[in-house]
Write a structure and sequence with these properties.
- The chain has eight helices and eight strands; from the N terminus they run E-H-H-E-H-H-E-H-H-E-E-E-E-H-E-H.
- It is 42% helix and 19% strand.
- The protein has a single domain, classed as Endonuclease, Chain A, CATH 3.30.870.
- The protein has an eight-stranded mixed sheet with strand order 1-7-6-5-2-3-4-8, with helices on both faces.
- The termini are far apart.
- With 208 residues, it is α+β, with helices and mostly antiparallel strands.
Length: 208
């Protein structure tokens, strides 16, 4: 089980030895306890905003190399259950993604279309601030990887093979600053939704 009481570096092969469902429950506990969650993603739709079909594609990818047990159905259900936190009063979620997140073909067009449509809807929730960094803007920092910042107390990072939790104040502050820089060049509201719908239209356009 992933422990949030101290800094940790845990290989997914060990973390997912008994499947991926338990890790989803651990994340749910952290998200339920946090008042403010900041999440930047450079390649994937944030887990809290994923459709079940998109989540299945993402979680299935790790199955062969990392997970010891095939519990994808249970893990997807747990990820969907995590999303109930988005509707709780007193919670604040700030998501920033690159435009690439909207355009990477990480699943079949039907799944991607459903996911983009879902983002349009979720971007209107009062608990959510959703920003998209357009391709044309100059980035203030290299978007090397995605990360979460919880209440300016802890940072969660996932690499290809492991998950990392940081709690040192200087490191947490650094990630908070990086998030602020990335958020500062993102588009929000109607402009963000325009980027999503444009990606959705391009997805449906015939390939020449």
């Amino acid at each position: 089980m992933w422990c949030w009481a101290k800094e940790q570096y845990v290989e997914f092969r060990r973390l997912f030895r008994a499947g991926q469902q338990a890790f989803q429950h651990s994340l749910a506990e952290v998200e339920a306890a946090a008042t403010t969650t900041l999440n930047f993603e450079n390649a994937l739709v944030p887990g809290l905003l994923q459709t079940a079909e998109y989540a299945r594609a993402m979680l299935s990818e790790r199955l062969e190399d990392l997970a010891g047990v095939d519990d994808v159905d249970e893990a997807v259900a747990a990820r969907m259950q995590r999303q109930q936190v988005l509707y709780r009063t007193g919670k604040r979620f700030h998501f920033v993604v690159t435009e690439a997140v909207l355009r990477y073909r990480l699943s079949v067009p039907e799944v991607m279309a459903g996911q983009l449509d879902r983002l349009v809807t979720l971007s209107t929730l009062t608990t959510i601030r959703f920003g998209v960094i357009p391709f044309h803007v100059q980035l203030p920092v290299f978007p090397l990887h995605g990360f979460f910042v919880y209440d300016q107390q802890a940072v969660h990072v996932e690499h290809f093979t492991a998950a990392l939790k940081l709690t040192q104040p200087a490191e947490v502050a650094a990630y908070g600053k990086i998030f602020g820089q990335l958020a500062g060049v993102a588009e929000y509201g109607a402009r963000a939704r325009s980027l999503i719908t444009r990606a959705l239209a391009d997805l449906a356009a015939p390939v020449e």
